[in-house]
Specification:
mainly alpha; 10 helices; 255 residues; globular
Length: 255
């Protein structure tokens, strides 16, 4: 593999880590870059390889968030177990079939997500604790099933969707949602990595340098998000969802 290919992948990974640490969606940068620069590599191997930098960057960002945000560890343990399981199942399915049929549905979901977040100015600015304990667990498990499977089967934008789900269903603010999204993302990434390692799909010569760059970008992004707070994260969230719309719009209507 050419040195310049690794270099460009590392740059993309750094930017992806920075963005992902703030609002998720780093895969929207990293995945297309890898698909373009590694045209002869099977898609499953590309997705499997990218899980390694995704995991390293998310680990660094999570550590930064946990310094400032309180986490319900019992609730997280349930979400981690469920999301790990369904990410593994999603990655298993990816090895035997294509995932393009889901892109039009995701495109429509992202439009609604963008409009709702833009029009509802106070969305994610404050914490809301209107749910009972049982309701919290019900919604947390439902989110973990759907987005855990999605992360294993498709991947890009999982962090942003997790943030949206945590705010809309669990009453988190943006900062708390970002922290919890990182924790769940660790579990989904680990579930996928387990499958891809067992299948021998990871290209370690690419994954390791990308992981270092992704972790560096994540460290910077998390520190910026924590220092700027909910208002900054909301604006960044709208920008990343808009980019996601362009990406999936291209896949659905042009490509």
């Amino acid at each position: 593999m050419e040195t310049y290919t690794i270099l460009f992948l590392c740059i993309a990974s750094f930017v992806a880590g920075f963005i992902d640490a703030i609002v998720g969606g780093g895969g929207l940068i990293q995945t297309p870059a890898a698909l373009i620069l590694l045209p002869n590599v099977p898609v499953a191997s590309i997705i499997g390889t990218l899980k390694i930098p995704g995991f390293s960057g998310t680990s660094i960002a999570t550590y930064q968030y946990l310094k400032r945000v309180n986490v319900n560890w019992k609730l997280f343990a349930v979400m981690a177990l469920v999301s790990f399981t369904f990410a593994y199942l999603g990655s298993s399915l990816l090895n035997v079939m294509q995932n393009d049929f889901m892109k039009p549905l995701l495109f429509a979901i992202l439009i609604l997500l963008l409009l709702y977040t833009y029009l509802k100015k106070d969305f994610g600015q404050y914490q809301s604790n209107k749910l009972s304990s049982k309701q919290h667990y019900f919604y947390a498990i439902l989110i973990s099933i759907v987005l855990g499977f999605y992360d294993g089967f498709i991947g890009p934008g999982t962090g942003s969707l997790l943030i949206m789900a945590f705010i809309a269903f669990l009453g988190f603010d943006f900062l708390q949602a970002s922290a919890n999204a990182k924790l769940v993302n660790l579990a989904t990434n680990f579930g996928s990595i387990t499958l891809f390692v067992l299948k021998g799909k990871i290209i370690w010569a690419v994954a390791i340098p990308m992981a270092i760059c992704n972790a560096t970008g994540s460290w910077l992004g998390a520190r910026l998000a924590i220092s700027k707070g909910n208002g900054f994260i909301r604006v960044f969230f709208l920008i990343i969802v808009s980019i996601a719309l362009l990406r999936f719009g291209y896949d659905v209507f042009i490509k």
